[in-house]
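Late entry, written up from scratch paper. The run itself happened at the end of the previous shift, but nothing got recorded in the book at the time, so transcribing now.
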Amino acid sequence: MIDLVDNQRSEELSKSEIEDFLPLANKDIRKLCEENKRLLVFPHSLDMSNDKIEYNPLFVVDDYKKEYLKVKTGNIMGFIGSNGKRMRIRSRFDRNGDNDFFLHYMLQKVLSINLFDLNHGSSQDDVLDLLELLFPSFLHKALEQGIYREYKRYEHNDANIRGVIAVSRHIRQNIPFQGKVAYNTREHTTNNNVMQLIRHTIEHIKRRQFGSSLLTDCKEVADDVKLVYSLTSSYNRNERQRVILKNLRPVIHPYYTDYRPLQQLCLQILRHDSVMYADNDNEICGLLFDGAWLWEEYVYTLLKEQGFKHPNNKKREGGKCIFTNNKGIRYPDFYDKNIVLDAKYKRFEDYSDAAGVGRDDIHQLVTYMYMLKSKKSGFIFPYTNGSNNQSPLELNGYGGWMYMYGIEIGNNTNDYRIFCEDMKKAENVFIGRINKE
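Output as recorded:
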């Protein structure tokens, strides 16, 4: 297995070692997803990320001609399978190569799920556990668009004619005449192959170690599961393979857009090993996470209790206009009465102050300060092994201060519970700084 870390500036690998994954190099995420239908990305709506990850490559290779290639990674984490081989891109904060504590912790906070009973490694079974943990989120997002319906053809043979008469079937079944007529109807129904696939996935997860709690602990998830049950009364466990085959063709519908990633996720779960090992030489499978989006949503779980607002670019909610004529709408990550904050999953721990940050990031934050009349601003970033003592800088002109707020990520334990305790301590320190400064 090829083991990389995110935001890696340069990793040298032999060409033979990475050869099976070279078709993925230097291609943006959106193109990879279009070419490889069994490649899942979380969040499944790529444009939810403010960092536009859909236009960023999974990894970059500089020179294909050399025997040893330099590989550079970005904010994407996850697992890829190609031609029977695997690649993992783990968080740079998970220094212990046998676990993915930081990734799992962020998922636990963002998805509001309990991961203490989960194995936190990177084996094939552990990756499939992650797929199942994502299922409630994908299901709820799809159901928010409405219950998926599609047209199905039904055959009837009774006296209540309400469709097209099936002449040949009528002659075959109703001669001599017995008061019945054979006819066909085409109905817009919720009891279809997609909903049946979702039901089969629920039944599969229920039998897993953590499945029952995953589907019942949260009322929202439990209600979604009950709704699926009520719509799939014809469920038959013995028809699972037939339902899988019927769903190999992706859902294409201009309204039910969130059912397609849910359908893909269900197929990955029910087909077990497909997430890690492709069936043929030309197929790429895997599960990827946008580290920048996950970090931003994780930070919001800490700040929302402090009263911070978190505008939603995807839903066009909570934005602020630069101009008085309501044009030039912008979406700061977080803001409160007198402060605006920007979450960055970048290597900011090396900077002594905000002056080292890229100009685009600084200009964006200054724009937000001016627009919101904020006197304080700051970048929120992860760091490890050291004290976060960057000095704030005062801005020229209209004044104001720019801070560097780091959240320390512990990596000195092999026990997930201890890791969570260390994270809670670091979060309290972070919130204390926000409230104090």
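The first helix runs from residue 15 to 18.
(Scratch paper discarded after transcription.)
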